[in-house]
Amino acid sequence: MDDFLLRAALAGTGLILATAPLGCFVVWRRMAYFGDATGHAAILGVAIAVVLSLPLIVGVLATTVVFGALLFALTREGTSADTVLGVLSHALLAIGLVGVALAPGPRIDLEGLLFGDILAVRQMDVWLIWAGGAAVAAIIAARWNALLTATLGDDLARAGGIDPARDTALLTGLLALTVALALKMVGALLISALLIIPAAAARPFARSPEGMVALTAVLGLTSVLGGLGLSFVIDSPAGPSIIVAAAAMYAAARVAQAAR
Amino acid sequence: MSLAALEDVTLRRNGEAVLDAVSLSVDAGEIVTLVGPNGSGKTTLVRTLLGAVPPDSGRVTRRPGLRVGYVPQRLSIDPTLPMTVGRFLRLPNRHPWDAIHTALEDAGLPDVADRPLAALSGGQLQRALLARALIGDPELLILDEPTAGLDQPGAAAFYRRIETLRDSRGCAVLLVSHDLHVVMAASDRVICLNGHVCCEGTPAVVASAPAYRALFGDGTGGALALYRHEHGGHRHEHPHPHHHETANG
């Protein structure tokens, strides 16, 4: 097997550590748009990193964290979060694309940015993704019960002595980190698909929150490996191929659910 | 000493007073009902009393170490979250299963610990929320419109259960409701809220107070009749102190 494919498979596995638990929370808390907007912010992060000659991951992480905080502040009031997120998500995408086009120096590979680029995954990235993925998984595990309680509702959380805003902020921060880690694998446009689709496919078969995370991890890993295999065999772009594999499993899950 | 109290509490939102110089207290073992039209600040008052919202002025006091059980208006649980009733009751603290089963029985919902939350009916979900509030053996049980999706017999049965719980566990109850017909029967004291406290007293006193009638109309005369008819003398079964028996509308 080629080295780059092995590195991509390893990186994808590390990524699933973060996307499986986080994706479940994104689905449970209806944060799909949130994931989209954060992904789009990452494009602007690349442009900023190029302008300032920073390592890409630093520019991307700084931008996603800042925009995550901004989104968190803007949507906390809750009233028309859907519209605010819709506006921000696409505004960020447009601003990012303009920023990338205007950035000085060699042209930035826009396709790789939007859809992922497995050739760009280096040994260093694999370590980074594993470290980041493990950190996200560990933080979620440590606050598991509090996060679940906050997901049941703000009032119930407060009655249990939990500050729901703090846990929402924590998830927002972890989402920003995961988006930054996933950018090279699946690209800015499809990151939230990697979060949502495996979790949605796992839902009909799960009896407990933990079971759903475990099944989401299995389905996510199958998506990554299946997508990379597909990409290798038919020479399709890797990021979209991973999401195609995930979508196929989602379809199969729904058919299996209907047949029961 | 009262369990929890508001003293002259004012809370503004966008410049308008949602709560205007509101004072109220809940004493041990009594059932206090808060009635008022939509937008009268009932939920805000409860959240202020719980400490979730700081008031702009006035004082909120809770007895130190007070154990509060809270039943929210509804549970906005997403159907994508798979969770059994038992697990729901063990969040965020892993209470022993004995306590879970006792709470479920007291709430009138035995033998459902293994069922998914999503499979419960509206009334069962409400009792699951009640069970959840009972686990910590609360001294004060706060229920915010607990019978909102229930029909009238269902609501009446729910309130009878609350009354039974008060008698068996000795906890105080603060009820927020607009189901006046059924609530009044179980209440020791009714507080009528419309931004400010309009009137306050026993169910009979409040129902005949001009301020209450101005808010809810004369149609509620029927509520009083029902109260008298079905529960005449009922309150005297409980040796609880009854004060505030004045309408100051």
UniProtKB/TrEMBL annotation, chain A:
Transmembrane segments: 6-28, 40-73, 85-105, 126-146, 174-200, 212-232
Membrane topology of this protein: Multi-pass membrane protein
Alphabetized Pfam families for the sequence: ABC-3
UniProt keyword annotation of Thylakoid present: no
Gene Ontology cellular-component annotations: ATP-binding cassette (ABC) transporter complex
Subcellular location: Cell membrane
Gene Ontology biological process terms in this record: response to zinc ion; transmembrane transport; zinc ion transport
InterPro entries: ABC_BtuC-like, ABC_TroCD
Keywords attached to this entry: Cell membrane, Ion transport, Membrane, Transmembrane, Transmembrane helix, Transport, Zinc, Zinc transport
Family note: Belongs to the ABC-3 integral membrane protein family.
Function: Involved in the high-affinity zinc uptake transport system.
PANTHER family xrefs: ABC-TRANSPORTER METAL-BINDING PROTEIN, HIGH-AFFINITY ZINC UPTAKE SYSTEM MEMBRANE PROTEIN ZNUB
Protein name (database record): High-affinity zinc uptake system membrane protein ZnuB
Organism expressing this protein natively: Palleronia marisminoris
Chain's gene name: znuB
TrEMBL record, chain B:
Listed GO MF terms: ATP binding; ATP hydrolysis activity
Top EC class, one word: hydrolase
PROSITE patterns cross-referenced by the UniProt entry: ABC_TRANSPORTER_1, ABC_TRANSPORTER_2
Enzyme nomenclature, EC number: 3.6.3.-
Key word Ribonucleoprotein present: no
Keywords for this protein: ATP-binding, Cell membrane, Hydrolase, Ion transport, Membrane, Nucleotide-binding, Translocase, Transport, Zinc, Zinc transport
SMART domains assigned to the protein according to its UniProt record, in alphabetical order: AAA
Gene Ontology biological process terms, A to Z: response to zinc ion; zinc ion transport
ABC transporter domain boundaries: 4-219
Matching Pfam families: ABC_tran
Name of the protein described by the UniProt record: Zinc import ATP-binding protein ZnuC
